[in-house]
């Protein structure tokens, strides 16, 4: 970072001010892995979700824990059922069967939250909170927030799941995390 020094009595010039502006811009927080951030005129707030460290975590609840539920070469991941914002995701709930996702390759497991962009509340439809798998990283849109729950690593010969990495923090819907346009 090339931050200029300013001294009393010297004129400010555009080159030095541009260097300062670029240095400030490059230091701006634009995202947080394992958490959220919000930017207001009063400053930036970073909220980092509690993470399980070092493979331990005894006694730590893992919300929506993904586990291997494969049957021979049919790759499947079971997702623990729980609530987001007081509601079960579509296909989950008391009396529902195990929530199983079929997978075929490395993938990401997300909670997708659909917001009403006028009221900034979670939509009321049964599919407004869902758990899904994606072979690609998902970005938030103007109405959908994607919250990473787990990553799944696979091998092809033989077809098998080699690792499941759970995030374990409770998903927090946040309309401020939507990809707002100006």
Protein traits:
5-stranded antiparallel sheet; 7% helix; mainly beta; 182 residues
Task: Please give the structural blueprint.
Elements: H1 14-26, E1 35-40, E2 43-48, E3 66-68, E4 76-79, E5 99-102, E6 107-116, E7 121-122, E8 129-134, E9 144-156, E10 159-166
Antiparallel strand pairs: 1-2, 3-4, 4-5, 6-7, 6-8, 6-9, 9-10
Write a structural description.
The chain is mainly beta and 182 residues long. About 3% of the residues have low confidence. It is built from one helix and ten strands, in the order αββββββββββ. A hairpin with a 7-residue loop joins strand 3 and strand 4. Helices cover 7% and strands 34% of the residues. The protein is elongated and about 75 Å long. It has a domain of 126 residues.
Mean pLDDT across all amino acids? 86
Alpha-beta content class? mainly beta
Helix content: under 10%
- Topology as H/E string? HEEEEEEEEEE
Major sheet details: 5 strands, antiparallel
Distance between the termini: 29 Å
Q: Please tally the β strands and state the result.
A: 10
Percent of residues in β-strands = 25-35%
The value of Rg in angstroms is: 22 Å
Coarse morphology: elongated
- Separate helix tally: 1
Q: Unreliable stretches, pLDDT < 50, 5 or more residues?
A: 52-57
Question: What is this structure, in a nutshell?
Answer:
This protein is mainly β and 182 residues long.
């Amino acid at each position: 970072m090339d931050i200029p020094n300013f001294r009393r009595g010297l004129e400010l010039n555009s080159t030095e001010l541009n260097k300062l502006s670029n240095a400030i811009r490059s230091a701006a927080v634009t995202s947080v892995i394992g958490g959220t951030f919000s930017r207001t005129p009063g400053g930036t707030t970073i909220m980092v979700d509690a993470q399980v460290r070092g493979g331990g975590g005894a006694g730590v609840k893992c919300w929506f824990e993904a586990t291997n539920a494969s049957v021979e070469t049919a790759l499947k991941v079971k997702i623990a059922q729980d609530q987001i914002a007081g509601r079960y995701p579509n296909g989950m709930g008391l009396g529902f069967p195990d929530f199983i996702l079929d997978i075929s390759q490395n993938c990401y497991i997300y909670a997708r939250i659909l917001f009403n962009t006028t009221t900034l509340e979670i939509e009321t439809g049964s599919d407004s909170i869902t758990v899904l798998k994606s072979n690609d990283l998902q970005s938030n849109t103007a109405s959908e927030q994607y919250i990473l729950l787990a990553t799944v690593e696979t091998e092809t010969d033989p077809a098998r799941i080699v690792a499941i990495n759970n995030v374990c923090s409770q998903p927090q819907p946040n309309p401020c995390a939507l990809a707002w346009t100006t």
